[in-house]
Structures are given as structure tokens and as C-alpha cells.
Amino acid sequence: MTMRILLGTGLVAACMPLAAHAQAGPAEAGRNWSAITDCAAAPSAEQRHQCMDDVLRRTGLLSDARVAEEARRDFGRDAPSRPAPPPPPAPASASAPSSASTPEASAVDTDRLVTTIASVGTTGYRRLRVTTAEGSVWEQTEAKSFNSSPKVGDTFEVEHAALGSYRCRFARSSRYRCQRAD
Question: In sequence order, what are the residues at sequence separation of 6 or more whose Cβ sits closer than 8 angstroms to the Cβ of residue 100?
Fold first, then answer.
């Protein structure tokens, strides 16, 4: 019984700052809600999603670090072709405080992924199958042998190559063609 009371009290104490931040003030809550209703008027799903992301970033609920981590996790997956996202809306007034991070400063390198090897194995025809720290699985697609085998913990790089293909490299090996297998 005492443990339940302590856990309940701890849970309430832990959630208080989150609730206070979400309800920052009636004026700010009203402004955020009006921004959300403006997003609902966007003509396409992509524009609505981008608008909601902008609102969440302004309130501090969506960080650039989280967006970058999701981009790393999804690197190499086939994404459906979409039109380019619209440019972000201009600030409401010139006197509004500007955020410290700009899109240029927090841009994520989407043409290259550098990570570490979590596990490594071979498939048929002595081709490598590498699992990264993020959980993505990459398979070698060209017949190529290496002087040394990759080891768990080695640096692993994946970069975009010509015609939508990818080139991988572990430790100090030469680059080889690969594809995402998960």
C-alpha cells in the first residue's frame, strides 16, 4: 500500500512539469490552438504534417535531435516519391524572438550515414550482411573480397551512389555496393 502511494506521488511529481509546459498560459495555449486550426486548412496531407511539425517545434515539443535520429534510423529505406515540401511560413512579426537553431545549422546529412557495426555475418556466395547500431541491415551486392573481416564495433559508413544505389564501407576497407535488407 505504501509503495503504491509513493509510486503515485512520484508519477504525479514527474508529470507536473510536462503538464505545466503544455498549459504554459491561456494566451499561448490559444495561440497554439489557432496555429493548429490553421494547419487543418492546408490542402494536402504533406502540408498539414509539415505545419504541425512547425507548431510542435515552436512549442519545444519536437526537437531537431529527434528528427535527426529518425532520419538516421530510416536511412536507405525506399520512400514513396513525394513533391518537395513547401517553404516554412514567414514569422508573424519582425519583433518575434528568433530561435537559436536555424534549418541550415541543424541540417542532417541525408546522403551519408556513419554508425557502428552491431553484428556481422555472411550470406550465400561469401557476401557480407551487416547490422548497424540503429538496427538497419545492409547486404553486400557485388562480388568482392576484403583483406580483413569487419568486427563488431567497427565504424560502418553507407552513402548514396549512382542511380539510387548505395556504397558501404567498414573500418578501413574499400567501398563496396550494398542494399538495405530490412
Answer: none
SS3 content of the chain, % helix, strand, coil (to 5): 35, 20, 40
49 Cβ neighbours under 8 A, 6+ residues apart:
none
Instruction: Give me the residue spans of the domains in the chain.
Output: 25-62, 112-180
Residue 169: closest CA among 135, 124, 123, 132: 132
Sequence-ordered list of residues with C-beta below 8 angstroms from that of 61, at least 6 positions apart, any chain: none
Contact call for residues 158 and 112 (beta carbons, < 8 A) = yes
Contact indicator for 133, 93 with CB cutoff of 8 Å:
no
Cα 95 to Cα 28: distance, rounded to the nearest angstrom: 17
* CA dist list (Å): 171 to 116, 123, 148, 178: 9, 20, 9, 16
pLDDT of residue 105: 41
Q: What does the DSSP 8-state code read for residue 164?
A: G
| Nearest partner of 156 among 114, 108, 118, judged by Cα | 114
Report the pLDDT value the prediction gives residue 142, as an integer from 0 to 100. Answer: 92
Mean pLDDT of successive 10-residue stretches along the chain, which has 182 residues:
56 51 63 86 88 88 87 77 61 49 53 93 91 94 90 95 93 92 89
What is the distance between the alpha carbons of residues 67 and 52, in angstroms, rounded to a whole number?
Answer: 14
Distance CA 113, CA 116 (A): 10
